[in-house]
Amino acid sequence: MYIPLQKKAMLYVRLRVRAEYCNYQSVLQGNVSSIKPDPVERQLECFAQASAILRARDLGYIVCDIKFSEITYLDAFWRDYLNGSLLEALKGVFITESLKQAVGNEAIKLLVNVEESDYEKGRALLLKNLHESE
């Protein structure tokens, strides 16, 4: 008896990981100033200086598209994201010794983001696929 294989639904959930310096205030306070007499020009100059400093200190980010074909794995991933386990696990991967050396004594933090709408759409697709295969 020939039973055609059902095509399994695959979906991708986008994970964004970003490393940032924890303290910008001390760097900005010591390096942003203006002597322009006009208040608007002074604010614009300070804003331009602050923007340049912050861009120069950007540690970057990584975008990962994670493929799921099983709803149990997707749900486990989402639970780990919500309860902070995913963030803790990723700290060991992204905050490396070389990154720590590059930033010197400054503290850095890791930010992780997954859009809830990505999870919900993916879950609906996998549920639909699960019901169709029954």
How would you portray this structure in words?
The chain is α+β, with helices and mostly antiparallel strands. Helices cover 54% and strands 19% of the residues. It has 6 helices and 3 strands. It has helices spanning 25-31, 39-56, 71-83, 85-94, 97-103, 116-133, and strands at residues 11-21, 61-68, 108-114. It has a 3-stranded antiparallel sheet. Helix 3 (71-83) runs antiparallel to helix 6 (116-133). The longest helix is centred in the middle third of the chain and has 18 residues, at 39-56. The protein is elongated, with a radius of gyration of 23 Å. Residues 1-5 have low confidence and may be disordered.
Q: Topology of this structure?
A:
Layout: E1 11-21, H1 25-31, H2 39-56, E2 61-68, H3 71-83, H4 85-94, H5 97-103, E3 108-114, H6 116-133
Antiparallel strand pairs: 1-2, 1-3
Helix pairs in contact: 3-6
GO molecular function: DNA binding
GO cellular component, one term: nucleolus
Keywords: Apoptosis
